[in-house]
Task: structure prediction
Amino acid sequence: MKTYAKFAVLIVIIVGTLAWLATGGIKETKTYYKTISELQEMKDPHGKRIRVGGDVAPGSIRRNGKQVFFTLQQDSRTLKVVYNGSDPLPDTFKDGAQALADGKLDPSGVFYASKIQAKCASKYEAAPGKPGQRPVYGASGQARM
Amino acid sequence: MENLGALALLLAFCLSVYSILSSLAGKWRRNPYLIASGRRAVYAIFLLTSAASGILIHALLTSDFRLAYVAAHSNRAMPDLYKFAAWWGGQEGSLLLWSWVLSLYAAVVVWQTRKKHREIMPYVVSVLMITQCFFLILNTFVVSPFQVLAIGKGITEVPDGQGLNPLLQYWTMAIHPPMLYLGYVGFAVPFAFAMGSLITRQPGDAWIQTTRRWTLWTWMFQTAGIILGAAWAYAVLGWGGYWGWDPVENASLLPWITATAFLHSVMMQEKKGMMKVWNMVLISATFFLCIFGTFLTRSGIVSSVHAFAQSPIGKYFVTFLAIGIGATIWLILDRLDYLKSESHLESVVSREATFLFNNLILLASCFAVLWGTMFPVISEAVTGDKISVDAPFFNRVNVPIGLFLLFLTGVGPLIAWRRSSLESLKRAFLWPSVAGLSLMAALFALGVRHFYALMSFGLCLFVAWTVAAEFYKGSRAIAARTGSNLLAAAVELTHRNTRRYGGYIVHLGIVLMFIGFTGAAFNKDSTNEVMIGDSFRLGKYEMRVRDVRAGENENYSWDHAVVDVYLGGKLLSTLEPERQFYKASGQSVSQVAIRRRLNEDVYLNFASMSEDGKHAVIQSYVFPLVSWIWIGFWVVLFGTIVCLIPSKYRLQYPKTEVVAVAGKHAPVEN
Result:
């Protein structure tokens, strides 16, 4: 029985360590998926990482150096977005496109995005067993293992 | 033509139902004719799905745009290879490919067992045909590839198709889905045998021996499929990585993890008669994760904010999975008595223990990946908030798991069964440990401070050393006896026990891949807006833009940059990244340019033209050691093929304590 106790201890240590790593990882990287109206009704949105989706309001895209200003709209709600990420915006990002912005909401109500994903309004069907959905230039080039 | 295709699928569906019923009825009423006709229905289904696939391929190759599927996934200007690959370019076609591969495998199984396994085969055929039936329901009634556009009723003519998604117009992508499917679908076979053996209450592990080759074979294709996907992401997607923990990537990884665990834990059952329930659970989990992966990919449940692939097939998959998993769990619980372990664990320092930890860790990894992938769905159900987790979560959990597995890869094969003495541990591991630790010390002295990278390199050398020592010891003994040279002796050694030494080669390949993964800790990148004549630096390289030009052909138009790469003032090579705009689909794709070398890759991506239209935005990356991933893959592939070659002598593994257990069980069976 002593052997089994040793195994139990080792298994608990291993599983415990992994669970600790996992909870830390979740805390660090969790991103809330929100629609614009949900975002505006959120109680305490500031400081949380948020991914918000909507259509790019036609004619709203304005550029100033590396910063890009635009408005996302969904039904009657609108959200002002400032993009100041380092990656160039995807080709699919244009008037009327569906876009996902990752970032944080400023207390003034402006959404500061560090990452934009977009897709053409027309068609985009996922293909089998492959991450073709990822916009070509959307993901950042961070170190991945 | 398309009516014939749809008819073939409908007939195949009817035959699959017939095959299930006649196999079961034949078994229960002991009617060999019914069983035989159930088996023949399997061949017929293969012919019918082949015919349907042939008709679809013909429509694709002849650009028959009356078919909705052809119009949506092909266009005239596409090369024939990609017209063919459009077979699996969309939902309807790829599910047809699933069905076809399954019918092919089922036909092969039936052919292989025409004189064997009379007892369990009717059940094996039934399980395979139930799966087949499910996919044929999808093919026939839900997402038929033979949907015809309403020509004459509003639409007069379709001038040209929309074309295959340009991201998929790349050679690894053309063969990646079939590879992955050959792997995914293949696990239906060992699963069916496992179930057959459970249903008929077979006491031994005959099903494992029968399906060992199948498992390896499908594992090989799965590995190839995953790596091809990674190679494609690296060379095509342009974000400079090969793995982003995307739900779809994770879907392909999950069954691979459980399959790998299964390949290892069956050794425990074969040699020690242990972990029998566990193996049943693993093979079932693998099979259902394959189905689940297809579901995840096809239904768009996880990425529903993206909503890139919403489709009605989700509920069919959920139903099939719920019934299948429920039935399997009931069956395993009901037959627990036949799955008793024949021996037990004796020491923490033993081969058994390493297998146990290997399985535990792989399962933990699988669970973490599944948890992370399904996190949006779970969190929405529990808290109402849809929350996703990102790549850092997966890395945080899986990097330590990977390193621990790497460690076990070195320790497991050398440690003794039952228990190991300190003396034997020292004999086996002293020098590999010294080598690994010295390498870590040397790298630390050279300025490497990345903890995981140091660990990884140290462990890589440790494992490589143990594997090399095994080969050296064995071949030296043979060389001394036969007088042949060491290399010939190594080949002879491998041939004598292909399973063991093939496994070592696979482990070596995994080590090489880990070297490649570790390189990611030292990646560098920068993004620059440049004009012709400009230059920029990345690390020790200097890049000078010699030319930027535009052009077009009938399939796409392009912007093309010519960039000279200098190192210390010397011209190394010229890279030509390109951006393509596909006319039929209206999508842009970049063709990255990569200078591949063993030490590091230089990788350029023509991201876009700047807003003023004068500057080209070029992303540049340096990826150290990434080539070793692909080299490691070839080694893994070679090792797996070695494992599949029969050994020169049939080895009888002494099974400890089997006699005693038989004695213990005998009274129960009387």
About this structure: The first strand of chain A starts at residue 31 and ends at 35.
